[in-house]
Amino acid sequence: MTRRRTALGPSPRRPGPPPPTAVGIVVPAHDEAPSIGLCLRAIRRAARHPALAGIRVDVIVVLDACSDDTAEAVERVHGVRVSTLEVDHRNVGQARRDGFAQLLDRLVEPRRRTWLATTDADTVVPADWLARQLAWRAQGAHAVAGTVTVTDWADRGPLLRTRFGAHQAALGTAHGHGHVHGANLGFDAAAYEAVGGMPGLGLAEDHALWTAFGADDRPVVAAGDLAVATSARRDGRAPHGFSAFLGLLET
Q1: Largest CA distance in the chain
Q2: Staple partner for 202: which of 59, 79, 91, 138, CB 3.0–4.6 Å?
Q3: What is the pTM of this model?
């Protein structure tokens, strides 16, 4: 995978990017009624960070073949601009792609002043999630990949926590780490469109997009200061996704 691992800094002879005026966030969801509220409330907190004062933040929850009350759970979250998009792909990459397409159709801000981000419906982002992404943007990053942590191992055996920790350590969690997660990605809208957008893959769409940024020689950051908390649940929504990966570590 092509990746720039060095820290970015603005050139003294070149002005930094213009300040962002809009942030768009996509959350794919397939039967996520129990978790989507917590996810959106965390995003709401991140959108209210002082670093985002004056920046429009839009969230789209892509309801992919939902048969439960996910849509109703989204409606109960107030204080952040959230909309839904119903699709029937059963494909997380295509769901993300459709969500970003709708966001970009809606936003009138210039692409070079728009930042995009994505997380998962069973994930809780920190209060400075967007602020830290935008701080990396200000240093020239076109894309930022953070890490994931698990805070609740109740649904798994005790051995998995140790094995997951070893896996994280092997790829690193400091700046320049080797992780790419759809639960913790952000990128410049113009760069996103330039590399063809999110691949409509049912697996590893996040890695494919990250590789596309690298192949296009875009400045990217594998940030060690940007972690989200995700679920260790056994009943994962994406086949061969994070839940399945944990299952392999557990065997």
Answers
A1: 55
A2: 91
A3: 0.88
